[in-house]
Amino acid sequence: MELLDNLALGFSTALLIQNVLYCFVGVLLGTAVGVLPGIGPTATVAMLLPITFNFEPVTALIMLAGIYYGAQYGGSTTAILINLPGESSAAVTALDGHEMARQGRAGPALASAAIGSFIAGSIATVALAVAAPPLARVALQFGPAEYFSLVLLGLIVSIALARGTALKALAMIFLGVLLGTVGQDIYTGTPRFVFGQRELYGGIDFVSVAVGMFGVAEILRNLENEQTRTAVVNKVKNLWPTREDRRRIVGPILRGTGLGAALGVLPGGGHVLASFTSYAVEKRISKRQREFGHGAIEGVAGPESANNAAAQTSFIPLLTLGLPAHPVMALMVGAFIVHGITPGPNVITDEPALFWGLIASMWIGNVLLVLLNLPLIGMWVRMLRIPYQVLFPMIILFASIGTYSLGFNAFDVYAIVLFGLLGYVLIKCGCEPAPLLLGFVLGPLLEENLRRALIISRGDATVFLTRPISAVLLAVALAALVVAVLPAIRRRREMVFTEED
Amino acid sequence: MRTSSRYRVTARMIATIGVVSLIAACSGNGGGGNADAGGDTYPGDNITFVVPFSAGGPTDTVTRMIAEPMAAKLGGKIVVQNVEGAGGTVGAGEVARAEPDGYTLLMHHIGMSTAPALYKDLGYQPLESFETVGLVTEVPMTVVARKDFAPATLKDLVTHVKANADKVTLANAGIGAASHLCGLLFQTAAGVKLQEVPYEGTGPALTDLVGGQVDFMCDQTTNTSGQISAGEVKAYAVTTPERVKSLPDLPTTAEAGLPGLEVSVWHGLYVPKGTPQDVVQKLSEALKVALADQRVMDQMAKLGTTPVPAESATPQAHRTKLEEQLGTWGKVIADAGVEAS
User: Fold this and answer.
1) What is the CATH number for B186?
2) Range of the structural domain that residue B103 is part of
3) Looking at chain A, which residue has its C-alpha nearest residue B24?
4) What pLDDT shows up at residue A48?
5) What SS3 state is found at B136?
6) Is the pLDDT of residue A500 over 70?
7) DSSP run (H or E) holding A391
8) Is the pLDDT score of A195 beyond 90?
9) Does residue B36 surpass a pLDDT of 50?
10) Which residues of A, range 380-409, sit inside 8 Å of B by Cβ?
11) Residue contact A184–B86, C-beta within 8 A
């Protein structure tokens, strides 16, 4: 079997002692930067890229890849413990993960995130090994029209993220979309809502919004109400998922893996939809919809698995076609070039040891990550016992350093103050930050692809219906909308938008 | 010894992560402005190289390549700092306002010569606000199309797009990007106005070209040579006076019959206006040494480019290039009616 030969070649490369060592260094660094709020994998990979100039190419790529998927593991930790997501995917994890932590169930939340990530990573790596080239060909069928329809579908199904009333959720989505329009319009170069500030030309950074709206607002809320906070710290229950928990997370993990793996392949940024969509799907099909937003373990396991599966499969366009799907992948292209390998479709045939070695190393990296992360859970949970007057200044310090390091721009630090205050006011009004982030992430994608599709079709809007993939996605979106508004299923819908009292 | 160097590298890496926060906290104002700027004692402090683009991009990579040998020659430390935003104008503006003491440098590319035409209220002027130190490298560009696009040669392409101007799409990586400039120049040289399709960066644009969603575009050899040699895109020409080593069969635009389309992504090093001449000279000398470094040459070769010859790594040659390019792009951009702000 050719596949077995290839895997043997891959493992013989990945299991070389220096490759295992640097794989470990990569996932360790990834976990560390994932845990530190604000400092993301992009900055880390960029900083470490010059150091890898002296490495063997395969060793360098194994380490850099490890940083990327390691950060996806680590990113959930702060989201769960202190409601501080560093990436769009972790924002979804924070919804139920942090609620679980408030109920003293941080341990099971962290454990199900780690287990889900491991299973998802392992399965997605198999997908990568078995079907990477054909999957990449399918993914290339996605043009601007298809992405527009996909994002629209994602936006419609993800309205389930809201806990409050539908009206408030919609208002938050629109506010998010509006914030997403800030910056230079890529089609005309016209600056929008920049108020003469050159720093705003590149738009508002997601990390600033997330750290402010979730993290800083949460700190303000905690400082206001000392009683609910001490309650959090005192009653830390079991560290490990109970038998009931384990039974509940199997389905979400497998569904999240499938969804994430499929969306991750798309080079135009399908990975950002993975965790949002997984959360929405779990909430829709769950028998315990009322628990979502109040600490449902499915709401942690599903999105975390989806996110990690997408992180693995987003290597497919890069490895098989040399096309980056993500800023980190663009840096990996740089790494290929610096090491004298021209990224492109020829990598599989010209550098089989590198291609298969990297894939095999991902599986090893996932094993290392789960071995690294499970014992850390006890330590993380103990971190919650740090007196809050010590903990919160440290959170703010790290958040400020992290956001500053995004682009050495003091503006990003001011932004977390602003969004912290905004987030606090919104919480007070009973509005939630999650739909806002959804709008902020998906709004620009929606606009960009809508306009690009129309530019290419010379203003002919039927392009969304005449292209088959796009038409199918729109039909599914319409169906989702009908399900939501049909009076016959009205009662079910009200359960989705659980009223908060 | 191999092993010991590996250990050193690991230690350095761990140290790097450790100091990430320190760098972030300390290097904000760009080097020690209070150090003595006199030529004899220079450099007495860390030198900051501002890169106005994201870390890991081509300009950043080039900067980090030359920073090490330059630091060795100058006998100091060089810190690379990425100040992104608005097509490089945020970082350039920061350096223009920095102390002219030789401790804050700017690495910029062709965008230095296009910004005055693209942005109003720039806050600085390329010729008045900076001293040129020297050119660094010129990265060639290629004209590429989706693989099933009908025209076979550059001449066919020109005929085809002229006849089908209402159907053809020309992709680029966003306003002011090298691919955008090259696309404008193509339209000028061919005497045609085409529908441009902007993307956010080269990656997505190239993805849609390989996927056949758009017809053709210009891009740096760094990004296209892999796709060209794999046959995923159709290549017509390279936009420099000479062919490139990595693509020996690809004709130049002049050879292929469109001599007006000559463009390269040139990089240069700047200091703020008023920097002492002896400091500028020292920096220029160090740049020359760095560009002659075998390691730098090897790494640039991997990027599909070469260091500029020693006579171009001088303040005067750099200034001449900048003046000439300001004239060229000012006209091309004004004729195309493009404006970024």
Assistant:
1) 3.40.190.10
2) 2-138+265-336
3) A405
4) 79
5) strand
6) no
7) helix A388-407
8) no
9) no
10) 398, 401, 404-405, 407-409
11) yes
